[in-house]
Amino acid sequence: MADVYGVCDEKFNGVRELLSASIDRGDDVGASFALTIEGEMVIDLWGGHLDEARTQPWQHDTIVNVYSSTKTMSFLCALLLADRGQLDFDANVAEYWPEFAQNGKQSVKVWHFMNHAAGLSGMDEHMTPEDMYDWDKMVTTLAAQAPWWEPGSVSGYHALTQGFLIGELVRRITGKSLGTYFQEEIAAPMNADFFIGVPESEFSRIGLLIPAGDGSAPTAEKDSIAARTFASPFAPATESWTDGWRRAEIPAANGHSNARAIAKLQAPLACKGSAFGVDLFSKETAESVMQARISGTDLVLGVPIAFGLGFGLNSEVMPLSPNQNTCFWGGWGGSSVVVDQDAKLSASFVMNKMFPGLMGDTRSFGLLQAVYQSL
């Protein structure tokens, strides 16, 4: 069996064995899995290699691009601002960002940004990866664009645009970029290893993702909302190997981290406000995440889903947990985040071998089910 390193409470030995078997089979090349319960790290495992040739071991401090698992950190930023009375999810976006009211968007609500309901899942203008590195260009173009559907009527996954939309609200309120605000107000106080915009000093420990196929966009029916969403903006998975991608702030997609840091950062939400000695926000703010704001078949993902504030919610269609008050999200290729307030549990899976799909896969699902079986 493949060697797996780190800490694992004895009751969860089945999780360790599952991760080892996945690496041994080649389903994973390198991976990490972490679990907190009641604000305590009970699983912190990693193993495998950074390269397909299996010459460089995955290290304790390895970080990789976690794609849309990054979104969950932008949610924490918005929740923190709301908890401090600086952001109202039911307010019009234009109250904070007046230029956004162009082209019929004067009544778009802040929660529409959080829940992929703003009608801006993609962009009319073709945006290159380099355009995504230009914050002002992205948010100015989004502010000028007309929505593709009636805002608030249905969700349509804002795969890359969501981070710019939430991030511009953070900038308008605080005067700081989302990456800076997140680092100063959340990651640093919690001593968590997560970057939205990686300093060059950390480049040496970044593991390269191994794309599924050629790393191109997910396929969708021609001229559909989904196809238009993935057409622009978009960057192939190999773009994550570049210094430009690493340095940029793309809060929907280019966070770099490992499972340990992600599970730790989401622990306050799992524990209704506080964990690891940090009082992040109130119980009321934490519980608000679990209240469904919109549900139905998502125009981009093509599956039925309910959203609380940002996160997808546990349901019969997506039964991640036996507990009702559970939310989740995942990243392109397989990374995942699960927060269970009933069990006071946060879990994350981060890997380098990408599987097709935007919302996690059987690897993370199997590890999570092993956790619940052990509990």
Please provide a written account of the structure.
By secondary structure, this protein is α+β, with helices and mostly antiparallel strands. It has a single domain, classed as Beta-lactamase, CATH 3.40.710.10. Helices cover 30% and strands 16% of the residues. The protein contains twelve helices and 14 strands. The chain has helices at 13-25, 71-83, 110-114, 129-132, 135-144, 161-174, 178-187, 225-231, 243-247, 259-270, 283-288, 362-374, and strands at 4-8, 30-37, 40-48, 64-65, 195-196, 255-257, 274-275, 278-279, 294-297, 304-307, 312-313, 326-330, 336-340, 345-351. Helix 2 (71-83) runs parallel beside helix 6 (161-174) and helix 2 (71-83) packs across helix 7 (178-187). The protein is globular, with a radius of gyration of 19 Å. The two termini are 24 Å apart.
CATH superfamily: DD-peptidase/beta-lactamase superfamily
Q: How many angstroms separate the termini?
A: 24 Å
- Assembly of the depicted chains: single chain
Unreliable spans are: none
Rg result: 19 Å
> What is the beta-strand fraction?
15-25%
Largest sheet: 7 strands, antiparallel
Gross morphology is: globular
**What is the number of helices?**
12
Number of domains: 1
CATH class descriptor name: Alpha Beta
Secondary structure class reads alpha+beta
| CATH topology assignment | Beta-lactamase
Helix content: 25-40%
Task: Count the beta strands.
Answer: 14
Would you list the SSEs in sequence order as H and E? EHEEEHHHHHHEHHEHEEHEEEEEEH
In CATH terms, what is the architecture?
3-Layer(aba) Sandwich
* Biggest β-sheet: strands ordered side by side in the sheet: 1-3-2-14-13-12-11
The residue-averaged pLDDT reads: 96
